[in-house]
Design brief:
The complex is a heterotrimer of chains A (365), B (126) and C (552). Helix content of chain A is 72%, strand content 4%. Chain A is mainly alpha-helical and 365 residues long. In chain A, the strands form 2 sheets. In chain A, strands 1-4 form a two-stranded antiparallel ribbon. Chain A has a two-stranded antiparallel sheet with strand order 2-3. Chain A is globular, with a radius of gyration of 22 Å. Chain B has one domain: Immunoglobulin-like (Sandwich). Chain B is 25% helix and 48% strand. In chain B, 17% of the residues are buried. Chain C is built from 21 helices and 24 strands. Chain C has a 6-stranded mixed sheet with strand order 6-9-10-3-11-12, with helices on both faces. Chain C has a 6-stranded mixed sheet with strand order 18-21-22-15-23-24. A 4-stranded antiparallel sheet of chain C has the order 2-1-4-5, with helices on one face. The interface between B and C is small, with 5 and 3 residues.
Chain lengths: 365, 126, 552
Amino acid sequence: MKTTGKRSFKNLLIAYAVPIMFIGLSIFTIPLSGFSPEYLVQEMVIRLARNSFLVLALLIPIIAGMGLNFGMVLGAMAGQIGLIFITDWNIVGIPGMALAMIISIPISIFLGWIAGNILNRAKGREMVTSYILGFFINGIYQFIVLYMMGKAIPIGNPALVLSRGYGIRNAINLEGIRQSLDNLISLNIGKVQIPVATFILISAFCFFIIWFRKTKLGQDMRAVGQDMEVAEAAGIPVNKTRIISMIISTVLAGFGQIIFLQNIGTLNTYNSHDQTGMYSIAALLIGGATVSHATIPNIFLGVVLFHLMFVTSPMAGKNLIGSAMLGEYFRLFISYGIIAISLVLYAWRRHKEKERARMNLRGNS
Amino acid sequence: MKRKRLIVQLILILALVGVSAVLFVIGKGHQLLIDNKRATIDGVRVEAYEWVNVYVNGAKKPIEIEEEDRQLAKIAGPWHHIRIEILEDGKVAKTLEKRFTVGLQNSFLLSLQKIVEGKEDWLTPR
Amino acid sequence: MGTEKSKDKTEKNVLLRCEHVGKSFFENRVLNDINFELREGEILGLVGENGAGKSTLMKILFGMSVIAQTGGYEGSVFVGEKPVKFNSPFEALEEGIGMVHQEFSLIPGFTATENILLNREITHYNFLVEAFGERLSTLNMPEMIERGGKALNTLGVDISPKMLIAEMPIGHKQFTEIAREIDRQNTKVIILDEPTAVLTETEAEILLSSLRKLAQKGIGIIFISHRLQEILEVADRIIVLRDGILVKEVEASEADVVKIAEWMVGRKMDTSVFEDKLEDKNAEVLLEVKNLWVDMPGETVRNVSFEVYKGEVLGIGGLAGQGKIGIPNGIMGLFPAGGTVKFRNTDVPLNNPRKVLNLGMAFVSEDRRGVGLLLEETLDWNISFTAMQVKEWYVKKYLGGLIKWRDDAAIKQLTSEYIKTFDIKCQGGHQLAQELSGGNQQKICLAKAFALKPELLFVSEPTRGIDVGAKKLVLDTIRRSNREFGMTVVMTSSELEELRSVCDRIMIVDEGKVAGILPATAPSTEFGLLMLGTSETHRREREIQNGKVKTK
């Protein structure tokens, strides 16, 4: 009895190794940063509202067994194209956001379909393939935004266009929709302002995922995610299911990017999507998710822990060594490092599980 | 069955396009330029007012326009109303409320003088 | 029971009939003129050695795509009176033929119900279906659980329909698989491929009784098993395949284990190539293995003890997947292993290939292209590589061993020597290993092991995938090295006749344990019985475990 209790505790420790590590780190950096609790809570609330939707978009490909998907960067690009158009047309407020989302849908569907088809040819190597695919689509995105817009695609607003007459400027002011969702229903608890509408949207997404898992399609995705061969043998169209999961994820990532940018208020045309995938994946992994398994609580825990690190580490670095650059370096290091560590831990854990499963086949030792 | 689904999908797409059109109209942002400038209306000279408070779409804080000045208000969508308070010696001398709709143009010029004089062309796109 | 069934047999409808079914994979004929029929409520036992054509026959019946991809089959299959030609398993399922495979096709993270109803879920309608298709309807879990439970109940096992597959003992997984086939409304025929191989004795009992229950409901069952006792117990009729030919069709009541074993093995040519069998029981023990276990996927060795005498050729036989290949791989340290192994009375460290090689043992792997050869290197390198690495032979040392150079001249000489003795067909030592034929590659593997001048050589499946002529040459080489150079050899092979022709003694491995060791001159039926894990063997095995019988 005692040994099983010990073992399950150990398994729990192993399963939550990454979040535990981060909680441990935060215990050091929070006091070192010198931020007030109110400030930190406010920051976390803002960042939860800003990032959760993007991270949630990662969930469906994980269910379908496609791992952590950098393909969401494609959705982010689609969302940004939507934002460029509504800024050009000067559509503001919630209608502007909604219109940007609608514009992004066909682009996301198309990009998701491409990504799904390519990933179907690279089964088992989805993560790296989608990462490289992100770079490739980034090239096309830049071509469209830098050369086509203002020429082949009419852009009326001169404030958006580079002085040479075509191509979009590097920074676009999104003042028309800035925080329009966050401020739609705003609630103050103490000194902390809570963007209620954004959270309503995020919880609607959570309910969508919960509901989706109970649909036939969701069930098929779970089956495909766990064992492609068995699913195929049962007559589930594996490739099609995987493509659908990519499309859904890409569309939702597009929405997520729009929600993200309405909070930030400026669009860095050529950079905003760069870190989207990396930060979302890092946050998810820090929340205790793995390549093959992620839950909704993982997402919120991960976003909080990751951004706690994100906010506190530059200040902690400055106060400790007198250089904020160190903290800046540290958070980049963290986000890449955590992905590497989580993947290694995951592989190690899988190996251990396999060994445990075979244990009873070994000698009577 | 397939056919029915296709029809439903088509309707959905059309609905989405419809919604987009509606969003475009109700979300369209405009610049409203409000003029408090001397003007000649039907050959009659109308002087600029000393001070005007303009409340756009029920805003709590007014846009304050001095004599011979022009102020910018940002509005979105087609339907608006404004309340105009014309001040003389620091007191409200005259209050005026107006409802109006705008087209899809980017900016509009509103002449306070023309409203007060009861002219039709007080709002012109530019 | 058997008489009752045979009485009303003629009244029952034929569910499945094969007429003149044959199949060859390219030049290799695996099935020839198979005729049989399966009636309603009948259990048909199908037995045969590995490679007798059982699985090919089942693949044809179940419409597996391999068959169509390799040119289809001859003859015709009828379901009822309707001729069918399946191009995919789905078409077979459509006609009511279900199959339970040897490997589980279950999803580990799903419950029993979810697996039983995989892709046949019961769903609720919702309006989204109209726009996005049936797949957006939601699952009706309560009803699904009820139906899953019903299917499991039909089998007479007590498994919760909500239990996760991953948490099930292996037997329950098997039942879940069968329940899946039962749940299909139109299932008429169920094919079970070795369903009891993974079950414990009690589980197997339950399975057999549930098969009888199913048969009573009118379902026809084809039951493949190596456990002849079970076949005799449960089947109404037995058909025996040997080398792709249906050699015997018999009522179960008229057969017994020994007869079936005889039919399976047949009166094969018993002429041994080498007649001089070593019978010297007083020879020195070279290798002593006690309670060895090896964790080699697919070839698990559970508990094996045996001795190898100096100067003999010991054969290790048994059916595929029973663990015979695991033994040399475990001793050589290629897979996690435990137990005690003594070589010349010194302990052999397990899980350490280098040490084992240093002790004077060598291994010719069954995985020729993977472990055995450096395919993209020359023959020179292939033959000398292990010797250079392990023994530091063919290496010139300078500065007291600080700098080591390859001794190319010595390597060349060595290679040409082996090319000559083994009669390797090649252009010379500079040729790449991948350019050689399978037989010659095998000889290179042997040469590589011989270059170590080992005292004990393990050879695993030396004739797998090479043609008849080359087989003889390879076997001759092994035998000659044993008789002429006094090299002790432990040879693993799936082909009993091959073992009998080369070895002095043959050990049969069954379910990861030693079923028995017999002199190579023993009649092949005795080996057959050992391989099939009949009651005789189980008794023997128990005695071995209890220490009553020494495994010599």
